[in-house]
Amino acid sequence: MSSFHEPMREQLDGFIDEHRRMLAGCLDGLTEEQARRRLVPSRTTLLGLVKHVTVVEQVWFDEAVTGRSRAEIGIPDTPDDSFVLEEGDTIAGVRDAYDKACDRSRRATAPLSLDDLLPGNRRGPLPLRWVLLHVLRELAQHCGHADILREQILAE
User: Fold this and answer.
1) Which of 128, 137, 147, 153 has most Cβ atoms within 10 angstroms of its Cβ?
2) Residue 4 pLDDT more than 60?
3) Which burial class, exposed, middle or buried, applies to 26 when counting CB atoms under 10 A from its CB (0-12, 13-18, 19+)?
C-alpha cells in the first residue's frame, strides 16, 4: 500500500509541514539584524534556528535515508555548529536553503512506508515512523523557541 493511503502517515506529514511553515514564517517581516539578534546565552537566534532545522532535515531525511555521511552532505558534525551564522547568511538565503531541504525530504520519504527501516542513523536502523515523530517533536520544540524570540524582538 502506498504511503499516501496511510492515514497516520498523512497526519504526520501534515503536522511536520505545518511546523516547517511556522519555522520559516518566524523570519517574516524582520530585518537582517533582528533575525540575527541573540537574546539568550546560546547561539540561538531566529535565523540560526532556521539554519539549524535545515540541517535537521538533512540529517533525518538524507543521512538516515541514504546513509551518506555528514561530510558528503556538507553539514556540521554537531547540532550546536548548525546554529552558527556566517557573514553571508541572509534571511532569503537561509529560507531558500530550508525550503529546498524540505522539498528534498518530502521526495526522499514519499515512497517509504512508516515501517520501512532507515539505515543511515548513528543509532542504527530506525523505522520511518520513529524518524517522523522525532522530527515533529524537534520542530515543535523549535517553533516554541522561535515564538518566544520573535515576541521579544518585536516588543523592543
Assistant:
1) 128
2) no
3) buried
> How confident is the model over 9-34, as a mean pLDDT?
97
Report yes or no: 2 and 114 within 8 Å, Cβ to Cβ.
no
Domain ranges in the chain are 3-155
Residues 6 or more apart whose Cβ sits within 8 Å of residue 120: 63, 64, 65, 66, 67, 68
Which comes out higher in pLDDT, residue 151 or 77? 151
Short-list 95, 100, 82, CA closest to 35:
95
In angstroms, rounded to a whole number, what is the distance separating the alpha carbons of residues 9 and 110? Answer: 10
pLDDT tens, residue by residue, 89-119? 999 999 999 999 999 999 999 999 999 999 9
Task: Copy the grid coordinates of residue 11.
Answer: 497526519
**Nearest of 76, 83, 15 to residue 46 by alpha carbon:** 83
Does 1.25.10.10 match the CATH number of domain 3-155? no
As a whole number, the mean pLDDT across the chain is 94
